[in-house]
Amino acid sequence: MNLKVESRSQVGSRQCRRLRQSGHYPAVVYGHGKPSRSFQVSMSHMDVFMKSHPVKSQIFSIELEKDTMDVLVRDIRRSTSTNQIQHIDFFEISKNKELVVNVPFSFSHEADAVGVREGGVIDHVVTEIAIKVLPKNLPENILVDIEALGIGQSIHLSELTLPKGCVLDKAISEDYDPLVVSIHAPKVVVEEDVETAAADDNDSEPEEAEQAEGADG
C-alpha cells in the first residue's frame, strides 16, 4: 500500500489554509529517530486511501521525494465546526521496534447472537484497544465473537484472546478489566394515554384557579 505525497517548505496556519483551499492536506511525518518533515497530500487521493485502508492500525508506505517510509497515521486533526480534516500526522515505524497501536475490535455474528434473536440490543462499550506489537505482527483488528451472548450477558477484555505477538499496553488487573460488549433488553417506553392526560389536565384547572383566588384574597 503506497501513497504518494509532495514535500512542502512553507508552514504555519495561513499556508495550511492555502493548501486546503488548493485541494491538499498539510501533513508531517516524524519518528524513527529522524527530524520531522512537512509535506502535503492530495485530498482526493487521501480520502480514497483512508476509505479503503485502516490507516491508524495498518502500516503502509508513503513516497516523499526519493524516500519511501513505512508509516502509520498517528493523528488526524479536524475542524470542531465542520469536522473537516485540517492536518495529518504520520509516524514512521521501525520494523524491529515494538509499537503501541490502537487496534479496532471486529464484532462477528452480531445478527445471529442469542440475545439479538431474543430481541436484545447490542451495546459496543469499547471499540478499540491499545496493544504492543512488532510491525510484522500488527493485526488489522481483534475478533470478538458474540454469537453465544444472551440478553444480560457481556464480554470483558480479559475474556478475549489477542492475536499472536500482541500484548495489551495496559495489563488486566483487579482494577482494570473493561467491558467490551454486552446485550441488554430493549427499553420499554410507556406512552401515557392522551385522553386520560387531557382529562387530568382539565380536572386540575379549577383547583389551581381556586388556589389563585384564595391567594388574591
TrEMBL record:
<keyword id="KW-0694">RNA-binding</keyword>
<dbReference type="GO" id="GO:0005840">
    <property type="term" value="C:ribosome"/>
</dbReference>
<feature type="domain" description="Large ribosomal subunit protein bL25 L25">
    <location>
        <begin position="3"/>
        <end position="90"/>
    </location>
</feature>
<keyword id="KW-0687">Ribonucleoprotein</keyword>
<feature type="domain" description="Large ribosomal subunit protein bL25 beta">
    <location>
        <begin position="99"/>
        <end position="187"/>
    </location>
</feature>
<feature type="region of interest" description="Disordered">
    <location>
        <begin position="192"/>
        <end position="217"/>
    </location>
</feature>
<dbReference type="InterPro" id="IPR001021">
    <property type="entry name" value="Ribosomal_bL25_long"/>
</dbReference>
<protein>
    <recommendedName>
        <fullName>Large ribosomal subunit protein bL25</fullName>
    </recommendedName>
</protein>
<keyword id="KW-0689">Ribosomal protein</keyword>
<dbReference type="Pfam" id="PF14693">
    <property type="entry name" value="Ribosomal_TL5_C"/>
</dbReference>
<comment type="similarity">
    <text>Belongs to the bacterial ribosomal protein bL25 family. CTC subfamily.</text>
</comment>
<dbReference type="InterPro" id="IPR020057">
    <property type="entry name" value="Ribosomal_bL25_b-dom"/>
</dbReference>
<dbReference type="InterPro" id="IPR029751">
    <property type="entry name" value="Ribosomal_L25_dom"/>
</dbReference>
<dbReference type="InterPro" id="IPR011035">
    <property type="entry name" value="Ribosomal_bL25/Gln-tRNA_synth"/>
</dbReference>
<comment type="subunit">
    <text>Part of the 50S ribosomal subunit; part of the 5S rRNA/L5/L18/L25 subcomplex. Contacts the 5S rRNA. Binds to the 5S rRNA independently of L5 and L18.</text>
</comment>
<comment type="function">
    <text>This is one of the proteins that binds to the 5S RNA in the ribosome where it forms part of the central protuberance.</text>
</comment>
<dbReference type="Pfam" id="PF01386">
    <property type="entry name" value="Ribosomal_L25p"/>
</dbReference>
<dbReference type="InterPro" id="IPR037121">
    <property type="entry name" value="Ribosomal_bL25_C"/>
</dbReference>
<dbReference type="InterPro" id="IPR020930">
    <property type="entry name" value="Ribosomal_uL5_bac-type"/>
</dbReference>
<dbReference type="InterPro" id="IPR020056">
    <property type="entry name" value="Rbsml_bL25/Gln-tRNA_synth_N"/>
</dbReference>
<keyword id="KW-0699">rRNA-binding</keyword>
